[in-house]
Amino acid sequence: MRDNGESYLKRHLLYIPVIAVILIAFNVFDISRYYQNIIIYVLLALSVIVDIIYEIKNKEVNL
């Protein structure tokens, strides 16, 4: 169980530099608030989908 928690944490710590780059890009390219919200919601949905796929693959391997 501890290994799963550590890998989960490591996987989500990788989001921090990605979020930083996205926020910098928003300021550099002067993207409007409307498109910023769309981009953020799409990325959140993708991260949830990736987590679900990862968990499904992990359970298949453990079985």
Topology, pairings included?
Elements (H helix, E strand, L loop, with lengths): L1 H12 L1 H15 L3 H30 L1
Describe this structure in words.
- With 63 residues, this protein is an all-alpha fold.
- It has one domain (2-62).
- It is built from three helices and no strands.
- It has helices spanning 2-13, 15-29, 33-62.
- The two termini are 15 Å apart.
- The mean pLDDT is 82.
- Keywords: Membrane, Transmembrane, Transmembrane helix.
- The chain crosses the membrane at residues 12-29, 35-54.
Structural class designation: mainly alpha
> What about the largest sheet?
none
Helix segment tally: 3
Dominant shape? elongated
Number of domains: 1
Strand content: under 5%
Q: How do the helices and strands follow one another from N- to C-terminus? A: HHH
In the predicted model, the low-confidence regions spanning at least 5 consecutive residues are none
Q: Separation of termini?
A: 15 Å
Helix content: over 70%
Tell me the Rg in angstroms: 15 Å
Number of strands: 0
The mean pLDDT is 82
Briefly, what is this?
This protein is mainly α and 63 residues long. It is 90% helix and 0% strand. It has one domain (2-62).
